[in-house]
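Why does residue order matter? Because the sequence determines the fold. Keep that principle in mind as you read this record.
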Amino acid sequence: MGAKDFSTFKTDLIIELGSRTDITTTLQGLWLNSAYTDFTTRAQFWGLRVPFKYMFPELNTSAIINTVGDRAWISVPTDMLVTTTIHDTSNDRKLKNMAWRDYIRKTGRGDSDESGTPNYWCRYGTYYYLFPTPDDSYVMEAFYRKRPTALSATTDVTAIGAEWDEVILKLAVIQSLMRLKDYEKAEIEKKEWLDVVASRIQLYTQEMGDRGDYMKPDQSYHQWNY
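Structure:
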């Protein structure tokens, strides 16, 4: 079965809500996109905490950003949600992340005589600030998790796998029922939804089996001579 397109999502949402005729096409789209965005950016749903290291693989991306000599900052990608790291491609090395409070304590940031090859980065607002301030043009590659683009065209599909389509649809149903003040039905839908999401996320941990240290016994076993 293929991925649901935006048109199918809206049709299915109305069916799930009892084929109501008072919910416009515009509202259907808004509510579906709200559920889609929430599902891919929230860390907790009604007591279910999404694993800290869990990230939708399809939303991991990178962008090339060139520095400008004697300018301390480079722009953050417009679709960035969380930055993983920044790699100095020109020198083939990873920059270290620095807290903003530590960055602003640094002296010589505006002095061209103190500029050089950046070793650190920190995010502040819509900019990455680099230290030392770049003395030339360097090619930086920012690795980050992006916000998904909202569905708009009838043939649009989500950026994540089709296995999540029903999960997104059901989340839209739950949120729609709550907007419509039908809290009893929303509560019933929640229980099943939480079970499905929890089990689906666990599937992704199977990829960790290829790591050399993943199958090692926990250190706590050693104290019992296992």
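The beta strands are 44-45, 48-49, 60-66, 73-75, 80-88, 93-94, 96-97, 120-124, 127-131, 139-146.
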